[in-house]
Protein: CRC domain-containing protein
Organism: Arabis nemorensis
Amino acid sequence: MDTPQKSITQIGTPISKSKFEDSPVFNYINSLSPIRPVKSIPIPHPFSSLSFTSPPSVFTSPHLTSSHKESRFFKTHHSSSHLTNPLESRPDSTSNEQAVAETTKDFNIDASTRDESSIEVAPDDPVASPCGEDTTDLSLVPYSPPRGENCSSDDAGMELQKMYDNVQGKNQTPDWESLISDASELLIFGSPNDSEAFRCLMMQRASTSEAMTNNEPESSDAIPYEAASILHRGMRRRCLDFEMPGNKQTLSENNTTVAFESSSRCVVPSIGLHLNAIAMSSKDCKTNVTHDYSGKIQVGLQGSTSTMQESLDQTENETREDADQVLEDVLEEPALAELNLSSPKKKRLKLEAGEGESCKRCNCKKSKCLKLYCECFAAGVYCIEPCSCVDCFNKPIHEDTVLATRKQIESRNPLAFAPKVIRSSDSVQETGDDASKTPASARHKRGCNCKKSNCLKKYCECYQGGVGCSINCRCEGCKNAFGRKDGSSVADMEAELEEESETIERSRTAQTHQNTEVLVNKEASSALPMTPMPIYRQQLVQLPFSSSKNMMPPPQQSLLGGGSSSAIFNSQYLRNPDITLTQSRDEKSFETVAEDGGEEMPEIIIHSPKANIKTLSPNSKRVSPPNLDSSSSGSILGRRSSGRKLILQSIPSFPSLTPQN
DNA sequence: GAGTTTGAAACT
DNA sequence: CAGTTTCAAACTC
């Protein structure tokens, strides 16, 4: 931290604006640069300053990895704790109902909650610009959710311009430290898109300022910005998701610049953190850092483009290895990993993911997407364009309302936003042997209340969550395939399926041997539909730590122990009722495996043998969620002999405002 | 795509 | 806490 502070004094203090303007160099530059002085002056300062004053995590050597991120986290955490959640700091937010009622109004941040140095947002902020509206929150809420969908990269410049204007208007001797602070807020929490603008500005600065002797401002910036954006990507997830198309430009794996831009726009679909980020900050940073990583991974994976899909399909294994490699890199060099993940090869995952969680959409008509009825809201994500909701308030521009509503709901039920499917406390102890004996290591938080579905349809939350019913359930005629309320476990069913699978596999093997025999084709064709499962299973079997014993219904993200928005993951996970139990069990094996690892280190779960399922499940439209996409690589990870558990958490814990069990 | 069913969420 | 209503997803046709 010494360096940054030092830099502040060195750069910020000494360089007086007037002096700078009067300098011959400045004049000369002005004459050359198309950039107008009024902008070139103010903006560069914040930036240059920022580049030295921001937390180490942002501007320190790119070599920093985890610590790097932690710093970042602390930074943001710190900020959030002070600036915080508007709900807590804003008196006018005490009335949730009111907040909800005034949804369309209360978008401006109370000046009172800001630091004196905070940049005041023009009251006449762009009307139609969601970006403009949101930017007002930037300095107040570190984890400010996504800007409008179409925020232009110019916004950053605008903000900075405002800052400059403001400072200039008030003081001839700007409070650089404050300004820097504000600027850093913008840089850190602004729209990822802004990073582009920043980069441009930085470049300009680099080319025009002698102060830029500092080497590689580029690289050092890129990563930091990226890192910063990650923190709230979850909140921006939806917006960014739809910016992806624009980023589908062909990416060169070697072109870090392009990769960066792409990644900066990518979003972690995962993450239904929109409202949780704030609360999340209070958690131990380790956990958050982990989420961060997973988020990164996802960003990369989901940033896939369709362009590679075909080729990837043909080289599934290769892709997996790539993913494996990438993930490995992620653990050691997040920033780098992210860049890597931007590679075209991983794009495919994104594509597939696009249809899943990341594109989770609701169809609310009356709830305004502010009730748990709304899947998006319940999952902690903002509604997105594809949603068919009416009068939706679950959008970034209504952040306050969303937060208020959320808080209100949580006041009623603290666990309202907690994962519906929770992992039993003893599940952790369930290793291999026990796993199969227990219907499921995860259970629905409250249990279901099914009357007619027999817990065999997704009406049943337990079933939907891929967990068996438990004593908590009040269901009638429970036949939950993942475990019945009466205690009958899946073990039996698994045994059956196992047997069946084996039979199928055997026949398949036999077929393979008889490949040369044309006559066999007849039978083979009839058996084809069945091959999928066997194949899939085979792959799973390859997993070093995979155990057939663990073959269980797919556990949910909840297995991670962290509260994650179960909704998204779970629902998506088993969205397709057509998915055979076998498949589910396979997926389960993944998670169990990861769990078995026992290590409590950052985990990146990658579930989703989506590709496999897709191919193997003839009648399934969409077998696995987008998140799971990455899972295709997940299985890869599973193979890792290193034993490192990589859990790509599609939905980082869904930190609720209140501690959850 | 429209209509029905279902069960969670919300309300009383 | 129980009963009822509202709601939107899941499902069916």
User: Anything to note?
Assistant: Chain A has two domains: 1-231, 234-424+559-661.
